[in-house]
Amino acid sequence: MSEPFDLRMPLEEAMETQRAIRRLKSDPVDDGLVLRLLELALKAPTGSNAQNWEFVVVRDPAVKARLARRNRQAWGVYGGIGRRLARGDAKMLRLLDAVQWQADHFEQIPVLVVACLRGLRAPFPPLFATSYYGSIYPSVQNLLLAARAAGLGAALITLPLWSTISVRRILGLPWNVTPCAVVPLGWPIGRYGPTTRKPVGDVVSLDRYGHRPFRRR
Amino acid sequence: MSEPFDLRMPLEEAMETQRAIRRLKSDPVDDGLVLRLLELALKAPTGSNAQNWEFVVVRDPAVKARLARRNRQAWGVYGGIGRRLARGDAKMLRLLDAVQWQADHFEQIPVLVVACLRGLRAPFPPLFATSYYGSIYPSVQNLLLAARAAGLGAALITLPLWSTISVRRILGLPWNVTPCAVVPLGWPIGRYGPTTRKPVGDVVSLDRYGHRPFRRR
Description:
2 copies of one chain form a homodimer.
Chain A: H1 11-16, H2 31-41, E1 53-58, H3 61-85, H4 90-104, E2 111-118, H5 126-133, H6 137-150, E3 153-154, H7 164-171, E4 177-186, E5 204-206
Antiparallel strand pairs in A: 1-2, 2-4, 3-4
């Protein structure tokens, strides 16, 4: 099944240069490559070794079109708010432009991967909720990193899933399979490259929240 | 800040050999290494580029002891159920043994990283919940993969967090900072190595849930 794709990029380099790539070419992406990326996604931790993840690979234009519509509906609301909040913030406006591009070209994205979980999603207590999502997002991050190593553009989005009922209908998901995240995959128009982040010392506390001995002076 | 630790392991190898390492030596782990791993954790995606993560690095024995107690309380309930369900399942019983070992030796773990999120945790609608946890678990997975590349044992656990109120008090977290996951770090007693997973074709559908053309016959 797994053809030899080159995914030997050093871990550090893959992480340092991973970023959301939203502008994607419509050129085809090989099934074997997508499966190899998903194979690596499955190596991520899974709570109680349940492996209760399900991945729907969407290539059918009709299914894509229906998800594109859901995405545009959510983006119509969220994007408008975002633009108002981002006024004057050039970096955030660039991000919003990229999300707009993605919404406008959603049907042309070669592959959408919808990551789902089987089993009850208990929103309460917090322990159940965090354990639940902790069984899908590590695999999604493996998928994103592996895509980066393969040179394939990818991003983590959730807007197309605003109506779980509708997405269940579109993908034929049973009631006990919940869509959690969407990863659009395609060869990048943009480039991978370093992201800008706060210094690590600003978000790390020692022993007690707010005690920040690692903060650069 | 970041000393040169060797984290150049090929991405594919790191993913293929990442597994929960629960039996850890009490030998010290360098602060610089922990910070470098967290620096890579921050390269993960973050919703709307909010970077609203907070990491509490716990080394203080008194704080560890309080988290150890919370962990044992949850494990007392969950572990008992687990053993009854796992009867006859040798693999699951080995996993439970490792979790038991971890609970028994929790105070001797050199470093606990508590991954938290700032901001409101809305349990409903599902879109908010999944977007929320989608902003912390990718960074946790980066931390786990980077630990693996460094040869440092790590695992993803949530049991010590069963009482959010108590953990907020132990770590001095403000009301709007929610603990999501704990990663115990230490030099491994056990070894990293391949995990066993279902074949990828068994958890991947094409276009519609249950349509499994990639399943091996």
